[in-house]
């Protein structure tokens, strides 16, 4: 059979990796796909650099629309990123009847509904394994391997930059700002790291996993997003003393009231495997009613790990592109006619209705009755305490200090109730600084 013809839009880190892995493993890939997969066109504004990567093996152009307009191209791989030109080009490629492979989580998390609808109308595939957790085949696992299950929850370390920063903060006892600068110097963090450190990148990824897990449309606008910028070395140290690690988790969970969809730093018991995922590595735990907890671990970014996911999508397309569209795997795992409408039976819950447990760090005057007052306010709000740790004032504020940190772990409670209790506690004259609240996830069942 004639090799399937691929056009790459953008040949940076991932595009270069895709080109070289396809070259290196072409025989093996052909044996799996049943036909060859050839990158025959590449569009990149930097045509010189593109030529230095592909040599004479592919035609290089500066204008992506030349690729889309070429009738010989079967699949367009979008590796430009962002919501701007990438969105226009993906929609144009679909309109031209091309299958699309993309690593663009931001685009799909925000505009996925429009893009998947356009693809369904045109009978083409939009594949995005590389958009979530890089080389880990988590989309395949959720969409196909776990298809028998009613998924209960998904929790993942799905941003390598922030996991690297948190690992360094823990190893070296340093604060966030210091580690971020070091990570930028070493090239682990982007010059503008906002999407990573504010949790937006992780929220894009968990939004996609939530849709596939529960059969709901992509709803990034409903995700709760909190990054790691407010974490202090002290929180990491106290968490450790209580048997926990702090990780930036993307969490999506089925509850009786609806779907939780959230990204925030979380205390995770140190004994859980996912708590021990260090550096820039990614890991995702999926809990299904039949299978129980399953864990997926690997590189979430980088040239060849991400290329591994892009090429897996190309192989799927090579195998299925002549199949009746109804016999292909639906892009969001559920048949599009069976997705629960946004706000329908499975609404994404507002954060006030999320139920979780908490770590609280409260800077107080070290005087009689302070702890009793705070625990009284928590009790009035129906919040049950799991553990309390009080540091010696000297240890916290230096010799002769009259301030100390109270660390309180709570049992599960509604976030709205916790918000109200914290507002009251914050108003106490003996509470001397903004309270640090970090959610805690046991991830036990
Ligand atoms: N910037 C992401 C990370 C990789 O740090 O994991 C691409 O999604």
UniProtKB/TrEMBL annotation:
Its EC number is 1.1.1.3. Pathway: Amino-acid biosynthesis; L-threonine biosynthesis; L-threonine from L-aspartate: step 3/5; Amino-acid biosynthesis; L-methionine biosynthesis via de novo pathway; L-homoserine from L-aspartate: step 3/3. One of its GO terms (biological process) is threonine biosynthetic process. L-homoserine binds at residue 190. NADPH binds at residue 105. It holds the Pfam family ACT. The keyword Transcription does not apply. NADP(+) binds at residues 9-16. InterPro entries: ACT-like_dom_sf, ACT_dom, Asp/hSer_DH_NAD-bd, HDH, HDH_cat, HDH_CS, NAD(P)-bd_dom_sf. GO terms for molecular function: homoserine dehydrogenase activity; NADP binding. CDD domains: ACT_HSDH-Hom. Residues 359-440 form the ACT domain. It is an enzyme of class 1 (oxidoreductase). The active site is at residue 205. Keywords: Amino-acid biosynthesis, Methionine biosynthesis, NADP, Oxidoreductase, Threonine biosynthesis. Belongs to the homoserine dehydrogenase family. This is Homoserine dehydrogenase. It comes from Diaphorobacter ruginosibacter.
